[in-house]
Design goal:
Radius of gyration: 18 Å
Oligomer: single chain
Largest sheet: 8 strands, antiparallel, barrel
Strand order of the largest sheet: 1-2-3-5-6-7-8-9
Number of strands: 9
Shape: elongated
Structural class: mainly beta
Number of helices: 1
Helix content: under 10%
Distance between the termini: 34 Å
């Protein structure tokens, strides 16, 4: 776990150390639905555009964190309510194809840390589990549609312990040049 956080910190430092004249930063709040957990999710992330171009391709580093709203249920004996929560931390690298167009498809992959916790209200039972896995994602952005940011839609598969499929939509709000 410590090595993972060190690697993510190093990736963020490298993106900040790049020449700032060309580097861009965006904030992207999003909402979605986790199909496997059957819960809505909210999240926020940042996106660091690499300060170099490869042909007609932009590479970005996109860390994010999200919370999945899961449904509470009664324990099998009917004595107490059981609540669960899922928090997912992502560190993805995204490749945007045709970044200057009005329709920008993209694909990416990265690391995922999934923290799952269960709590029972009467007995005080509390348990949590953390899985480390990978994300595979794809989507499309629509620059200029709203006038102030770039709306996007995305599908993501997370392979960490169990497989989770999420459908996400949000808006990228540029904060840099």
């Amino acid at each position: 776990m410590r090595k993972l956080f060190t690697a993510l910190t190093l990736a963020l430092c490298i993106s900040f150390a790049a020449p700032q004249a060309q580097a861009q930063f965006s904030l992207f709040p999003y909402i979605g639905y986790n199909i496997d957990a059957e819960g809505f999710l909210i999240g926020i992330g940042g996106e660091f555009v690499a300060p170099f171009e490869i042909s007609n391709l932009d590479l970005t580093i996109a860390p994010s964190v999200e919370y999945v709203f899961t449904e509470d249920f009664e324990d099998p004996f009917g004595n107490a309510d059981v609540s669960t929560s899922i928090i997912q931390i992502n560190g993805d690298v995204i490749a945007r194809f045709n970044p200057q167009g009005s329709f920008v498809p993209y694909a990416g992959a990265g690391l995922a840390i999934v923290i799952f916790s269960v709590e029972q209200d009467i007995s005080g039972f509390d348990a949590s589990d953390t899985d480390i896995g990978i994300n595979i994602l794809g989507g499309a952005a629509f620059p200029g549609v709203l006038g102030f940011g770039d709306p996007f839609v995305q599908g993501r598969i997370t392979l960490a312990g169990d497989t989770a499929i999420a459908l996400i939509g949000g808006v990228r709000i540029p904060l840099g040049n």
